[in-house]
Design a protein that fits this description.
The protein has 212 residues and is mainly β. The protein has helices at 2-7, 183-194; strands spanning 31-33, 42-47, 59-63, 67-72, 76-80, 86-90, 93-99, 107-115, 118-123, 144-148, 167-168, 174-179, 200-205. 27% of the residues are buried.
Length: 212
């Protein structure tokens, strides 16, 4: 558990992001929310094979109006809205944005889809197409850009299709790929490429009924 926490910035991704490359965006899509929506507030248990073991420690995610908190038997870690993360509404979904760990002017995103008994959390990664080791699944929907790793200013010049990983330009300078956000196109990408497929399931539970 402690090792996983050191890998990620955002609490929902703790059990997934060790093996994926988070996509980077110039902004968060949708309408900004000042609090966590009441309809998704509650206490949740992460449903993932990684944690389905008899030796598993208690691990819960708690969403309140002002924070997202992860709780295990050793510690409680709180992440406050408009400080560690931001929440936006996009159609019927909730988009969480948090500054990229290595480039603070870019954003990592996760989409939350509300379900009858829990939440589906989709961490937006820069996954390659199955038939290509170069093109990202996001590329057909959003334009890519690049910026030098030693600069925080976002550049607007278009670049050829490629990955969101650091790379070198013709002069040997390390460059970082990111995507320019378009709300409608991002929504199409999510609904066509991710929805119902690549998600972490958070099952809503009754805190009073959980085992000690």
């Amino acid at each position: 558990m402690k090792t996983l926490k050191k890998i990620v910035v955002f609490v929902f991704a703790a059990c997934l992001l060790a093996s994926c490359n988070q996509a980077k965006f110039d902004r968060i899509p949708g309408e900004k929310q000042e609090s966590v929506p009441q309809e998704i507030q509650g206490t949740y248990d992460i449903q993932l094979d990684l944690f389905k073991t008899s030796k598993r420690d208690s691990f819960f995610i708690v969403l309140t109006a002002n924070a997202i908190t992860q709780i295990d038997k050793n510690e409680t870690q709180e992440n406050r809205i408009n400080q560690e993360f931001y929440m936006f509404r996009l159609k019927n979904y909730w988009v969480l944005g948090y500054p990229d760990a290595n480039f603070s002017s870019l954003w990592n995103l996760a989409v939350i889809e509300s379900m009858p008994n829990g939440l589906r959390v989709y961490v937006i990664s820069d996954e390659k197409k199955k038939k290509s080791n170069k093109l990202s699944r996001i590329t057909p929907y959003l334009p890519e850009r690049e910026t030098p790793l030693n600069h925080e200013q976002i550049m607007s010049a278009p670049v050829p299709n490629g990955s969101a990983n650091p790379m070198e330009d013709g002069k040997g300078q390390n460059m970082l790929k990111y995507f320019m956000m378009n709300d409608e196109q991002f929504l199409q990408y999510f609904e066509k490429e991710l929805q119902g497929k690549d998600f972490i399931y958070l099952k809503k539970i009754n805190p009073k009924g959980k085992k000690k």
